[in-house]
Amino acid sequence: MEPVESEGGEPACFLNLVCEECGKVREGGRCPLCDAPAAPGPDSPAPPED
What we know:
By secondary structure, the chain is low in regular secondary structure.
């Protein structure tokens, strides 16, 4: 009898690392896409000057 190799993807224990919004794998607990700092837009207030 030949050995049977399991098929499939990653184990379910990695499910908590997947972002619910976009499906990307989180890095260090943060999603590289959804948790990225937003770039200031033209309507954004200027940062306070020291």
